[in-house]
Amino acid sequence: MPSQPRESARLEFTYLDGLRGLAAFAVVFHHTYLFTGLTDAAKTDMPWMRPIIGWGYLGVPLFIVLSGYVLMLPVMTRSDGYRVPGGFWKFIWRRARRILPPYWAALVFFALVVLFVPVMHNPNGTQWDTKLPMGWGAFLTHLFLVHDFFPTYIGKINGPMWSVAIEWQIYFLMALLILPMWRLLGGWVTTSVLVAAGLWMGVENRDASMHPWFVGLFAIGMLAAAITVRARDAHLEGRLRFLAPRWTGWVTGALVVAATAAMVLMFASRRLYFQQQTWPSEIAIGVLSGIVLTWLGVAAVTGHHTWFSRFLAWRPFVLAGLVSYSVYLFHSPLLAFGNLLLLPLGLSTKWQFLVMVVVVVPVTIALCVGFWWLVERNFLNQRQRHAAAEVTSREPIPTVETVQPVRESSVR
Questions:
Q1: Which end of the chain has a smaller Cβ tally under 10 Å, C or N?
Q2: What's the CA gap between 126 and 122, in Å, rounded?
Q3: In sequence order, which residues have a C-beta less than 8 Å from that of residue 83 and are 6 or more positions away?
Q4: Residues 366-379: tens digit of each pLDDT
Q5: 133 prior amide bond cis, ω within 30
Q6: What is the pTM (predicted TM-score) of this model?
Q7: How confident is the model over 392-412, as pLDDT tens digits?
């Protein structure tokens, strides 16, 4: 029988916001590359950029691992045996309140844009054509977050929304499947089973539009959080003497760097395969993300903050992380719109991409921040309200904090 978590202070890691912000901007620049010019123009005219910017889609599996990590932290700091705080329905309500209002606001806004802005509902030979047409089937499946069940609808209206649907469904699996397995089998076995199942479904190309391997990636984040909290508790009780600074510092850091280098070499050696068959690279980045989160978390809770956590806790990165959900929800159609407005100018692909990066991307980010201010900031959870207050103050931002449990604690 696995050991039970005990009631203790909830952990908050500021550097997670920085990591989330960097992942969001990686997705933005990846989509900027895809939306430049006519369909595949950037790939044809600027192939030298694809080995760098073509990996931006890996920000999505990183989001999934991060979500598993932060949602498992409050579970691990309670004493009720690996159950979501407040019970199933309160957990779902908290998650719904956090992600659905901004999601629905963005969905309705861009549905109206597609309907009433001519350049957005007429095919023009660009990547945006894959988001058209927008019928009732596409809208309703998006509205109820089931469009990932339908390959015909999954990419319509606003492409990045497919992963929001998958994450929403994983919340139910976490409470109804993953945590019961955790209680019965333990974290390592549960995570291994789910990752193996995802690998099998990837190899067999089963339900690929639903990205079933994301469930295993979410469990990897949960396992990293469990290790982090147990390390914190053991450290406080004096049972982690072997974790001297050198083990949580440069030695472990060197191992993480070596694992990262191995993954980069593997991706570089078969780049076209990994960028066309995305499931192997998404699983690989998920495993690496779990390793990095464990390294950062264990180091932080034992008082040995790494250079990487301090780098990620830089105020601009934390600020980017706070608005990352709005950026993710809002950026793609705006980039497509900017590209469509530039097409009549007849610019070469290189110049069009430059204008996209220098003009369209900053305007897009500004509009995303405006969406955050008008909509998303009204639905922040406790952790994000706390982080928003810290990032707007003049005090140094800590990389890790402990907060006493509250009834409605929830972290994204």
A1: N
A2: 11
A3: 75, 179
A4: 999 999 999 999 99
A5: yes
A6: 0.89
A7: 776 666 666 665 554 443 333
